[in-house]
Amino acid sequence: MTSIENQKTLCYNGGLAATQESLAALITRLRQKRFHLVQEWREGGKTDELWSSVEALDIVLARQENAMATLESHKI
């Protein structure tokens, strides 16, 4: 590899790493929110309305986890 190719690779991997760190932090926050929603559901009478919030969050969380897996597969 040439010096320029090395620099491009370093920049790409650096940007990818920063994106992964941000996404990991988001996933952590979403998991914490899910924990609290489940706790609210348990304490709030286990209603379908409360559980629908958990299910909606599960969809968002799954999408973010899939995005993270995709990013991990693109490292040079």
Could you characterize what this model shows?
The chain has one domain (3-72). The longest helix is centred in the first third of the chain and has 41 residues, at 3-43. Helix 1 (3-43) runs antiparallel to helix 2 (48-72). The chain has helices spanning 3-43, 48-72. It is mainly alpha-helical and 76 residues long. The model has no long low-confidence stretch (mean pLDDT 92).
Write the layout of secondary structure elements.
Layout: H1 3-43, H2 48-72
Helix pairs in contact: 1-2
Mean pLDDT: 92
Q: List the quaternary state of the chains.
A: single chain
Question: How many DSSP H or I helices?
Answer: 2
Mind telling me the C-alpha Rg?
18 Å
Strand % is under 5%
Give the domain tally.
Answer: 1
Structural class designation: mainly alpha
The helix/strand order is HH
Number of strands: 0
Concise structural overview:
By secondary structure, this protein is mostly helical.
Features:
76 residues, mainly alpha, 0% strand
